[in-house]
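Appendix B. Chain record.
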Amino acid sequence: MKIMQVTVQVGRAETAPVEVLVLTLCEGEVLAKEDAALLDRALGGSLRQLVQSKEFEGKANEVLLYHTHGTVPAKRLLLVGLGKKHEVTLETIRQALGSAAKRVRQAKVESFAVALPTVTPKGMTPLDMAQAMVEGAILGSYQFTVYRSEAASGHNVEGMNILIPRKGQLRQVTEGIRRGVATAEATVFVRDLCNHPSNVLTPAKVADEAKAIAKAEKISIKILEQNEMQRLGMGALLGVARGSQEPPKFIILEYNGAKNKDARPVVLVGKTITFDTGGISLKPAENMEHMKADMTGGAEVLASIRAAARLKLPLRLISILPVAENMPGGRAMKPGDIVTTLSGKTVEVQNTDAEGRLILADGLAYAMRYKPAALIDIATLTGACVVALGQFAIGMFGTDQALKERVRRSGQKAGERVWEMPLWEEYFEQLKSDVADMRNIGGRGGGMITAALFLSKFVGDCPWVHLDIASTDWSERERAYIPKGPTAIGTRLLIQYLIDRSL
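Structure tokens predicted for this chain:
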């Protein structure tokens, strides 16, 4: 998908000569705003009539396209609701711009202008608002048409111009646009990777994508092949990959924008299963096609390091992707097998569909070699997460209170919220094995917790957070800026965390 070009201009909404002018308005206060009042006067009171007739009420994500018939320079006016004024947040603004971009695309218009909302959420700046606007607009206009023969006839919105009333806001809004484009671009990249079918996006293809990013952004890269994994002792990752014809990859990318080049890094580890059949413990056929997105975590840590490099963030960042297919086959790992992980710990595999924690065990153990200042792993890990949290929260576990709080705040700002779950040692009783150090499943009760506790055994005492995105990575319906299918939720959280850590 071609990314929308975003610009900023000092100017008044009522004098903008554009195809479509987007105006965000609050419920019950539509004409109290300066832009709305001036436009209403120029339109001969038409806006007031729309409000009085309740044709437009300003409710959240409500949209109305209005033809101006030459009464103002803008050919069309698109009203978008923000809901009640005291309830407006960055997420409200993000969703409003997503809804607006969809309506502009339906109108088959090439570009549009939008006035910076006059309602500022508590504690937020024009920078934050501009970033949210850009993210909403770009992600709301997302389409994946690579495999459609009629793709050439589809319409894309190519440009958005943010209108600001004062020159003093220019610097902040420009930086907000820069951040918004980088985070939205990263999210689009993840959605695209997750939408590609697994016969296209193989472990080798993931490695090619990583190489291309490393070359373009001047990031260092190292890819471990199967023989080197065997030499190092990555028995868990190799065990998962054994049933597939596609050889596994272990990808390490490093970006160093820190002033102190020897600074301890932030390390991100992402589960990268390019297709998950469940292995010998085969999944049900229904919805198995969704498992092409079981590499969402890996795609997100890959996109995050690219965004960090493009934003030139002053930190040292390492992204690690253990990549494999989980397939049944004559050589596939079987229930009852014992694997020896990179850390030396042994695991009895009681269910081959609990493979994500196995590849992450080797990924996290490898990450410890860098002595991380912060270690975050992100994974579509457990069906139990979906049961516990539904589709609107990411499950969060961790060993460091300060890191958990930073991640929580960044998630709130990005509109990708986390909910902390307990990481109590008592749950490890469920993971005890009669024949190995531990087993890879702990029964039905507390499945998300036992999976996280399993991972905690491979991170030593460094500050660590685990994010389970199995509840949020796929949407069954289209929302304001979330498409049906792969959502890439978690990408903007990670990037916002990296931005916030850099400030």
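Further analysis of this model is presented in Appendix C.
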